[in-house]
Amino acid sequence: MKRTHTLLVLSLTAVSAVNAASLKNLFSFTEETKIKGGFLEVGGQLYFTCEKGGAKNFGYIGRFNPADGNLVPQYSFVTDAKPKGGLVRVGNDLFFQCEKGAATTTWGWIGRFNLATGSVTEEFAYTADAKPKSGLIYAGGAFYYATEKGGYANWGAIEKLTPGAGVATLSSLTLADGIKIESWAADPDTGLVYYGAREGGDITQLTGKGAGAIGRIDMGGGTVSKLVDLDFQNHGAKIRSLTFHAGKLWFVLEEGGDLSLENGKGGGAIANFDLATRTLTRLHVFSNATGFKPKGLVRAGNDFYVATEKGGAGGLGVLGVLRGGMSFESLAEFDATVGAKPDNYLRVAGQRIYLALELGTPGYLGGISAYELAAPMSSVPSLKISRLKEKLHVSWPAAATGYVLQATSKLGSTEWWPVARPPLREEDQHVVEIELDGPAKFFRLQQ
What we know:
Layout: E1 8-9, E2 23-28, E3 40-42, E4 45-50, E5 60-65, E6 70-76, E7 83-90, E8 93-98, E9 109-114, E10 120-125, E11 137-139, E12 142-146, E13 157-162, E14 166-172, E15 179-187, E16 192-199, E17 213-218, E18 224-229, E19 237-245, E20 248-255, E21 269-274, E22 279-285, E23 292-300, E24 303-310, E25 318-323, E26 327-333, E27 340-342, E28 347-349, E29 352-359, E30 367-372, E31 384-388, E32 391-397, E33 404-408, E34 417-418, E35 424-426, E36 429-435, E37 442-446
Parallel strand pairs: 1-37
Antiparallel strand pairs: 2-30, 3-4, 4-5, 5-6, 7-8, 8-9, 9-10, 11-12, 12-13, 13-14, 15-16, 16-17, 17-18, 19-20, 20-21, 21-22, 23-24, 24-25, 25-26, 27-29, 28-29, 29-30, 31-32, 32-36, 33-34, 33-37, 35-36
């Protein structure tokens, strides 16, 4: 039996401190593209899905190389599929979600794109207009997502897709539960997946629409429960970019805050929800100076970067940061040169935050821009490796939350993949068991 060799490799992707440079345009589109899910970094390349462009103008799966500015379509959709929510990597496959256009049924579907062959496989297709458009989250060996239609009240449902085993409906949604789910977060320690609903919840608000809600899914039992209703005046409405960090869910709200702005809708806010105390806290209220209508949030270290769609001196939005989760600072403004109308998904890769923009840039059709970050933090947790019978135990401190164990078969490779087995909690450590047979592997932690 061939034994697995291991090597401790530390991730240096957690970033904080003062930024070094301004927002820059990296690529300008020459055709309408509409990226609707941000970027996924694989081996230094950025993969994405878009609604337009490609061989038939139905969108495509693309690859962008930030090093040389080269963009190459990898697969063109042959129907008007409207991919939503971006790409999620499992092994050598990138999974994605489409609102419609399945080859077998014409309705919504979930597909997988193989990095090696460039081929697309229909993993699951709906037989009715369910509108799966929430994006996917992968946790515990399965994908979780929501539809906007279907379920017993036709408000949609929360679904679970296990690759190779089909789809199971976990819960039909009601207006009181929260509907139009478009944000997900997972806590690897507890085995819980969290969702943010943009409408519903307290239906006495916003003329019956509700300001939205936050809920959770227990991956073990598959049970779904609502945690809290959002209040429009005190918190805001239209939640985006749910992010788990340090026992809290962090997010932005497109509306609410100062209700004297934006014709009574407010310019939006940043808030968090403490999972232990069940407390909602509003952290920043947006104004013209810091931008209106926040579209996306991403964490880098203990800082939270936010892109807004409106506001700022030029009116086209602001890129800012909530330092340490406490004080907000404007960093750069969107304009005709760097692009405007940012996608909801911001991505930290290496020392940059990457953004897809639908308008502006030299091509006037949007493009790809990036913000340079400062040097990475040095306080990255260490991996420990021990052997127990025929298995390796790879562990790191339980206090180090938000890290994912990744593996590669060749040291120095740019191809790293997440270890599918979820970590177990043993006293003060996260522990992942690895079988000894198989090829050599190297491991690292990625935040």
